[in-house]
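Extended Data, panel c. Modelled sequence:
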Amino acid sequence: MNTLAKSDGTVGKALDVLDRVALIGRPVRFTELLAHSAYPKATLYRFLQTLTNQGMLSYDAQSQTYSLGMHLVRLAHAAWKQSSLAPIARPFIDALAAQVGETLHLAQMDNGQVVYVDKQNASEPIEMFSQAGKVGPGYCTGVGKAIMAFMDEPDQQRALSQQSYFAYTPNTITSAKILKVELDEIRTQGVSFDREEHEASIICIAAPILSNGKRVIGALSITDTTRRHSLKDLEAYRVALLDAALKIGEEATNWQFPTQY
């Protein structure tokens, strides 16, 4: 059961069930949910019925499976417009993409994890984990480290405690102490790097997006593969990347983005 379910009673528990269906990533039967549920059979069924009645889940009687409902699509679209940097960042991302010809990622942070809110593919796309709408780890991605490096100390300490420090590759940082040292370096340098820390052969340079009040509200990265470029090659994009991040931050200043980290 997650923290939300523990602290927010019935609503939190229902959202915990909704999260479970979302994480499975495919239509799921009641018996499968029950096998991994912290709730009694009757309680789980009641939550599923309520979520289905509200359109948060959809039930297919023929296959007897639950999947995410269309009401969530409407909510997700509204959230993308109201709480995501993507709509106002898109012109600057398009301009940067035309300039560098590489894959770009726009991300924000939620509970220590990065949420990819937009992606612009390179002229020659490469396969990688990140896609718009996906959630990834903060501690081993360029965008995640860029955001955490520019957080206020209390927010940064909380984000550090929310990481799993799982070793995805031999290059993954696996301790908060080592990560903290790198975050201090990133704050000084102004950019972060993903040195094949989340996926083998995938590298990136990332910059924080700061409001005029210097509050970090997201990050922008340029990503490539070691089969085509080196970190030194990506370093050549530093000025263009920082300029695009600065312009997005300036444009976003009048928007009241929620602090989700």
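Residues 3-74 form a domain with the Arc Repressor Mutant, subunit A fold (CATH 1.10.10.10). This feature is highlighted in the accompanying rendering.
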